[in-house]
Amino acid sequence: MIVIGVITGCLGTLVGAGGGFILMPVLLLLYPAMSVKDVTMVSMTVIFFNSLSGTIAYFFMRRIDVKTGLIFASATLPGAVLGTIATDYIPRGKFNVIFGLFLLAVSLLLGFLKKPEKQELQNNGKRIMKCEVQDRYGKVFRYSYNYVKGIVISFFTGFVSPILGIGGGIIHVPAMIRLLCIPTHVATATSHFTLMIMSAASIATHLSFSHGLSFLSKAFLLSAGAVAGAQIGAALSKKFNDRYIVMILSFALFLAGLRIIFLNN
Prior knowledge:
Layout: H1 2-14, H2 20-30, H3 36-61, H4 66-86, H5 92-112, E1 128-134, E2 140-146, H6 147-164, H7 169-178, H8 184-209, H9 216-236, H10 243-261
Antiparallel strand pairs: 1-2
Helix pairs in contact: 1-2, 1-3, 1-9, 2-3, 2-10, 3-8, 3-9, 4-6, 4-8, 5-10, 6-7, 7-8
């Protein structure tokens, strides 16, 4: 569990996605009898500690856009509460098919969509928020985005995340980069900050509506590894070319998606 947590934390922080999309396939394959509610809460607990650790690392790098992060996190909270409640009503068999298809889509997204070569500054139109972030290494990021579009994306991310147990970074980061034109380094750091708040709300909702704590032992072992892995991933993000890891990850997710879809066969 601890080793799986380290790998999840490292890769999840490296690509700014929290690691849930890596951890969930592993949990579904290892524990086919576990309920949807418990397996997603194991993942969300690990995502919280992973994103907390990653947020601390990115905070010292000064790459978090705190204002944007708070806006997006506030938008995710209603969706996270609704999504957590919805896990009580999803049968495991149907969940496997839904999540398997989701993994196939994510693998294709990672494998075939290229990163934008440059970030475009949006200057025209209403509802545009202009931002500037300077990290501790002296690099300045100037950008602007449509905050209404960002709020809508964040609400959707908040709703889907606890249902699939993925944390939402795999949705949020590409949307922040491609749809809102936020620089990649700022998007990954700010996404971790948002995930930390959203996952905490999801866990609190689960504990409020359920007395089942059977997921905690697995969650804490995985989280211990994820905290260490997140620090490694944040450090590697400064100098590591993630192109090949993303390609390998894409292939692994594709195979995992197929396996999960046919898990009951």
